[in-house]
Every structure is written in C-alpha cells, then in structure tokens.
Amino acid sequence: MPRTDHPCRYPGRVASKSVERLLNVIMTIGSRRRIDRAKLFSVIPDYARAPSDQAAERMFERDKALILELGLPLRTETDVLDENTVHYRIDAARSGAVLDLTTEEYTVLLAASRAWDDAAAGGAARRVRAKLLSLGHDADPDLLRRTPRGAVESLPVLSPLLEAVIAGRSVRFVYRGTHGAATRRWVEPWVVGVHEGHWYVHGWDRDRAAPRLFRASRIESFPDQGPAAREPRPEHTDLSAVLEGMLDSDDRAPAVLRAAPYKALSLRDRAGTGLESEHLELPLLPRPAVRRLVLADARWVALREPVLWRTEIAEVLEAIAAHHRSEAELAPLEAATVRPPTRIRTAAQSGDHLSRLISEASYVMSRGEADVAELAAAIGVSEQQLVTDLQVLFVCGDMGAGWEDLIEAEWEQGTIRVRNAEPLHRALRLSAVEITALLAGLAALGPTTGEAQQIVESARSKLLAGATGEDAGASAEEARPDDASAPIPEVDVAEEMAERTADRAERVLEAVHRALRAPEGTDDSRITMRYSSNGRDGTSVRRIRPVRIETHGARSYLLADCELAGTERRFRLDRVVEILPDSSAQHEAAAGDGPMLTGRVDGAVWLRLDPPGHWVAESFGAVELRDGPDGQTFARLEEPVRAPLADAVLESAGAVEVLTPCDLRDTIVTVAGAAAARHRS
C-alpha cells in the first residue's frame, strides 16, 4: 500500500497519543547511532509542543520508563566534551534474542502463554505473548498439538500483586474472606503462587500483625501499591506447605481404608496400592486431612482404622443425609441479598499496545511477509485490530529525517509487509512479572513425560536463568523494580501435579504421546484403555484416537475420538486406569448397585454454603451469589456435572446443602447414607 497522501487519511485508527509518541521516540533513537537530548526534544512533536521545559522533561521520563519496561536496551551517555549534553541510543549489541531458545522450548512457552486469558489477567499476561512473538521463532506445529493446553485462573489483580512482591512494597485491597464480609486489608506480599490452578497470596497482614493467606479470586478491588514493606520476608516460603498447614493437627495416625477396585485412584497413588486391591494404607497424616480425603471419595472408600476417626466420618455422613432428607428451607434464599458481581476495571496501558506493535513489526520483518489471519491468531487479536495496528505503524518513524523515513506498512490481499522499521526488529526482554506469568503457565501445562518433560524443564530453567541474570551494563538511571535482576515471585505447583509422575501416569502419558505423534488414520494413532468413570461403578474399556491434552486448574483431560461413543469425548487423565493391548474387547463394565451419577444436572442448582464451603461456589463457577445471615452464601450453578458436585457436598462435611432441585437432594441422601452405612458396618 504506497504512501500517497497525509497520514490523517486514516481517521478511524485507534491509538493514544502516547503510543504514537513512544513509537516515534524508539524509531528516532534507534535509527541512528545516538541522538542528543536537545535534538530529540525538537523533533518529537509532543515534546516540542509541551507548555514548558519541565513538562517535556516529565513526559520524557515517563516514556523512558515504559521503553525500559518493554525490555529495550535504552542507554544514556554524557558527552565527553560537554557534560551538559546528554545522548541516547538503543544498544544494538544487546538487541538479539533475550532468551536463547530452541524451537521446541519456544513452542512450549508459547503454549504456556495461552494458559492466560489476555483480556482478564492484566498487563503482564497481555504482554507475554506479544514479547514471545518478537523473538522471531517459528513454533513446531506437531509439538504444539501434543503440548497440553493449560488453563490458569486469570485475574486482573495479579499484575499489581506480583509487582509488589518484586518491588518489596505493601498493597491495599478489599477482600471477601470465608465469613462473607468484605473488608479492607493492608498486606506485604511474600509470595504469589499457583496451587491446583488457583492463585494465592501469602504475606504479612499489617492490621493483624501476623502472616495470612489470601485467595486471589476473593480480592474485590484493584490492589493499590502502598509504602515499602517493613516485616522481614522469610528466605523461602512454600505455598503448598502453608496450605497443608491449614489442615494440620497433633492427632496423627496411619489410616487404613477399604476401596472399590479401580476407584479412588488419587488415594491409591498416595498409598502406593495396586489398582484392584481393596486394602489401602495411607501414610501418617493429620486427622483433618484424612477426613477431607476420605469424604471426597466417600462413594468409593470406607475408613476402617482408626476406629474413632471412622465413627466421626460416619456421623458426618449421616448428618448430611438427614439434613437433605427433610424439606429444604427456601425462605432464607428468597430473603438473601443479591451480591453484585465484582468488576475490577483494568484499562489497556500504553506498554501493552506498544509491545504488541513492536512484536507485530518484528514478526513480519523476520519472515519477510506474513498472512493477516495467521498473525492475528498468533498475536491474539482480531484481524480488524491488526489492520488498525498497521495503520498506526504507517504514520510513525524517524521524526528527525522527514516523511520519507516513516515506516512502510502494506496489508493488501491478506499479506503484510513492513519495511523501514529496523529499530523495531528486535526481541523484547521479559520482565520478572511476565516471567512469573510464564512459569505459572508452564505449571498449568502438565502432565508431560519423556522428551516433552525435558523440553518443559529446559524452558523453565532458561526462564529462571533469564530472570536472575544481572545486566552489568545498566546504568543507575535505568534500574527499575521489575528489572531482570529483581527477585522472582515463587510459583508453586500443587502436590497432585507431582503425583502425576507415578508409574501409572507415566505409562498412560507415554502411550498418549506416541499416539499423538503417529500419522492420523494409522493403527498407531489409536490406543485401548481401561477407564474408571466417576459417575458409575466399575470400569469401561475404550478404543480411542487421542486429539490433544488439555489442562484446567489442577486437572488434565484427554480429548479423543471414542469408538464406543461414536463421537469426541473428554476423559480425565488421572482416571485412565491402564493401557491395554489392542486385542482387548471394548465393553462397558457392569454398573453395579451404586447410584448412577452420570451427566449434568438439568437446569439450575441452588446451594446454601456455610463459610467453610464457600470454595464450592468458586470451583463450580457460580453464576449468582446471594449473601445471607451469619456468613452464609447462596450460590446458583447452571447445569453442573452431577458426580463431582455430589462429591463436593460430601467433602464439605456439612458446610454445603443442596436446596434445589429435589432429585439432586435425593441423590445426596442416597450417596451419603450408603457411605455412612459402609463406615458403620
């Protein structure tokens, strides 16, 4: 698209004045060996039109901070002959790839970046994918297909929390705890980490003068950064240990259970017990932890020893059954106050838009040309937004050399070409906050095994090395809280993810990965497995063609074409009992005498939640919440999956009651009563 008229030919383009100014500053400095401050201020229109020299100085200082935040190596030099003359340059020697990645490592990092919902997770998440694309790599499409598609809880409060950890500052926010009331909290964050797919903040609560743990999804205001932290930060904080400590007790004992064959697989992993064995022995655990584990799998297991613990669990289950046997009280639900949904507004920042513009230009120049649809998909924007970005590039360039040195951008017939933009053809350094976002994304990718696991570990090591490496050439003026030498917030991975490395999981994953690598349509692209459904007794044998692995929170799923169902089905990987020889007969195992809990509940479900059961509303994505007396919450779920909801009601130990529909209440009576009877027998 040749430049034939004035840049205002595009009145519909959307870009803030600061974005165009920043792009012009980068192009003007980067197009020459160096430029002095006075010349730069005279050729950049916004600086030249500033009402005073002080206003221009403040504007430039803000622009410098954003340019450094992008990872561009902006250098400041004083003239050796005149100390009043300051020069600026972008260090070409450091303009290569910030992370020296192989194609495979780049591919898994790109997959990790997709674990985030760009629109909701704040600036760090929005910039990560754009900065990865600026590296100029091509992803391995086969490896991308075999890499699990992870999902990390995406929250707009994460960026300021991560930045507070790195900067060593306090934050203030509104928090709704388990007792329902929203209160103002003042916290010095020590660690922001992921556990079972959910974000937590652990730090020093100034108002309570004690360490506290906060679930990030319960923060209801954008965290405001406060003064520097005063309380010394522990040398190492293990988020998993903090969470487990909440279930700690001096009452400990090895637990003995009886379990249905092929069921309660996570408990079998803990006990190291065979798949068909009915006898399980758990290691030494505190009483509250054992109670929660047993209640979560109460449809399949019964605690035998210690006897006192067994009696307690039987009483809990009997109380749940009795409470659901009577008619539900709906008057408190109708009188409860509807809680307005939390709306934390996060506007796109100049750095977000600018990093995307630079990455788009770098992506195209590294390839010579690019397809509009492919680049839009890679960057995560619509084709219309991509064209709007190209219109912004079209009117920017080296402002000290005239219109002939503006960027040339063409996008005719679906093909993009960008020329005269060499200063933008560079990799953007990832900040410590952005590296943390990628580390969380990598944690969500699991499970992996063999070569894929080695690639993920290698990519993680390079991220950590890039985060802790020091830049000896950086001047004091350039030092920033999110510089690469800053400490990285810890990203914890749930214990359950570590358990996936058990022998059974290794064998399943290796078979799935072999099938994913095999050419489609061949016998090698199919596997036969024994699957333990959570909704019925026994197991079924399925012959499937794996399509891809997906991860949601701490759970990983296999999407596959199932011959038995005749369509595509999703299987939880931790419920794949074993891989069988292809000659195995495909069949459904007998359902047994237990209740059938398959499928979804038809319509809406209303729950009453006491404070210890508030987690159920979050886990099942409640579409409406109402606040009742004494910290009670009423939650409406839309067509939840029946079996895991029934398990959650039992796991809550009476803190959750199903109000409607009646048939689901009857189901709870049945499963709780049967589980109580097994513990009484």
State the end-to-end distance.
81 Å
- The portion of residues assigned to helices is 25-40%
Query: Hey, roughly how much beta strand do the residues contain?
Result: 15-25%
Number of DSSP strands?
25
Radius of gyration: 29 Å
Q: Spans of 5+ residues with little confidence (pLDDT < 50)?
A: 1-14, 470-486, 492-501
Alpha plus pi helix count: 23
Q: What would you call the structural class?
A: alpha+beta
Which outline best applies? globular
Overall mean pLDDT score? 81
Structure description:
By secondary structure, this protein is α+β, with helices and mostly antiparallel strands. It is built from 23 helices and 25 strands. Among the domains are: 7-93 and 348-424, no CATH class; 158-245, SH3 type barrels, CATH 2.30.30; 331-340 and 596-680, Alpha-Beta Plaits, CATH 3.30.70; 502-588. Strands 16, 17, 18, 19, 20 and 21 form a six-stranded antiparallel β-sheet that branches. Strands 7-6-5-4-8 form a five-stranded antiparallel β-sheet. Strands 12-23-24-22-25 form a five-stranded antiparallel β-sheet.
What is the element layout, followed by pairings?
Elements: H1 17-30, E1 35-36, H2 37-43, H3 45-48, H4 53-70, E2 74-78, E3 86-90, H5 103-113, H6 123-133, H7 141-146, H8 158-167, E4 169-176, E5 182-195, E6 198-205, E7 210-215, E8 224-228, H9 239-245, E9 252-259, H10 265-271, E10 279-286, H11 287-296, E11 301-305, H12 307-325, H13 331-335, E12 337-338, H14 350-367, E13 370-371, H15 372-379, H16 383-394, E14 408-410, E15 415-419, H17 432-445, H18 450-468, H19 495-499, H20 503-517, E16 527-531, E17 540-552, E18 555-562, E19 567-572, E20 576-580, E21 587-588, E22 604-609, H21 614-619, E23 624-627, E24 633-638, H22 642-651, E25 656-660, H23 662-680
Antiparallel strand pairs: 1-3, 2-3, 4-5, 4-8, 5-6, 6-7, 9-10, 9-11, 12-23, 13-15, 14-15, 16-17, 16-20, 17-18, 17-21, 18-19, 22-24, 22-25, 23-24
